[in-house]
Amino acid sequence: MRPALLIIEDELLLGAELSRHYQDGSWEVEWAKDLQQARNILLESEFNPLVILSDMSLPDGNALDLMEEIKGKHAHAEWLLLTGYGSVPDSVRALRLGAYDFLEKPCELDHLDLVVSSASRSASAHRRLQYQTQQQHQKYSPKALVGRSPATQRVRNLLTRLTQSHFSTLILGGETGTGKGLVARILHYSGTRAQQGPMIELNCAALPRDLLESELFGHEMGSFTGAKSRHFGFLEQANGGTLFLDEIGEMPLDLQAKLLKALEDRRVRRLGGNKEITIDVQILAASNRNLEQMSKEGGFRSDLYHRLNVFQLTLPPLRETKEDLEDLVPLFISEFSAEASKQIKTIPERVWAQLRNHDWPGNIRELRNVIERCVLFSEGEVLSDQYLQLPIKESQPVHKPSYSLNHIDQICLPLDGSMALEDMDRHIIEVAFKRNNYNIAATARALKSTRETLRYRIQKYNIRSADELV
């Protein structure tokens, strides 16, 4: 699709020349001879220009008045203003309204082409950013926090109110895996900061002290060994937006003092620098530890805790909100089924019984991983309980597996991360193939798979029978 250009010019010869020139240059061009015609094109037609090339003074008024009138009512476009005489007040007003450039007539076509091309790239980038922000807003609305339990509903209602409020700092509490990262993204992308700046995330537990300081506050070239260029810290990069400090309880005490000063003064100084930079950042601080208790015991600065604690939102663990399984499990099955090209539609009652009986120490993160594993290894439309691998409580009825591998009860797999899912898949097929004397039909029956699927997996993993190994 060709880029669109609106020309607003009352001089007939110049307007015709510009229109013909840019139409030949593969632009889609509309030409308005006065402000009213331009207003109709912008507000009432489907024409959506990337660049607006306009004379400043027109028969029915000043182009700056139209620019101010349509601001916020039309998709972002870059304005290039042409005038036969320049005035300082008009130049200042044009820049204040966001004009891309202010050019005096006559203007060489070659130079004008360069400016129009640059303005087009700027408008395209701005629209892409707006589109991404809108997509994130839709993805991370308060409804993204899924669950029907009263506790989850209360958190969702609080999120709705917080996204409509202006707050400087907030503490997110809760056990690991309860969704603090998701809540932080909801607060940013559905909040008042989404259109003002980016969201920057920093895990304070993932970096050593010196690197954490450099990433947070930035540094000047030569400020330390290896600082070969200037680096803008995350506090600067998040200016206007949100800085999400995950695991803030792991931040060293001396850096906590430096962060407190930056938050109090709203200014930051890069390492090795002598200039303070003004910042306006919303801080979301998350921790799975009790920061209030840590501040009493000296493990976290009490002054920083009170500075951050404008509002505290604690997420409930999954063992206290097991009603949420009714919404979370189908959601995760749908997500992973799409990724793995599966068609899982049924969740047996024995699967539900095990899911409801488990206490989920890893919370939603653990549930997500369990469902992903089951989806990957399930065949057909039924979610298999073969790979749930949840510890069985004494009060839980033991369901004997309905499958058999040549009358041998089970295959043991490590869950300590030492074996990838693909390795588990290969190991299961290899062991079952061997136990069934390398008979594909018997192995397929034992694994409740089809022979075609099994042959594909055997070829994929290059599994050979005993005769082939000789």
From TrEMBL:
Molecular functions (GO terms): ATP binding; sequence-specific DNA binding
Keywords recorded for this protein, A-Z: ATP-binding, DNA-binding, Nucleotide-binding, Phosphoprotein, Transcription, Transcription regulation
Ranges where the Response regulatory domain occurs: 4-120
Residue(s) carrying 4-aspartylphosphate: D55
Gene Ontology biological process terms, A to Z: phosphorelay signal transduction system; regulation of DNA-templated transcription
InterPro entries: AAA+_ATPase, AAA_lid_NorR, CheY-like_superfamily, Homeodomain-like_sf, HTH_Fis, P-loop_NTPase, Sig_transdc_resp-reg_receiver, Sigma_54_int
Domain of life: Bacteria
Family annotation (CDD domains): AAA
Ranges for domain Sigma-54 factor interaction: 145-376
Protein name as it appears in the record: Sigma-54 factor interaction domain-containing protein
Protein's organism: Candidatus Nitrosacidococcus tergens
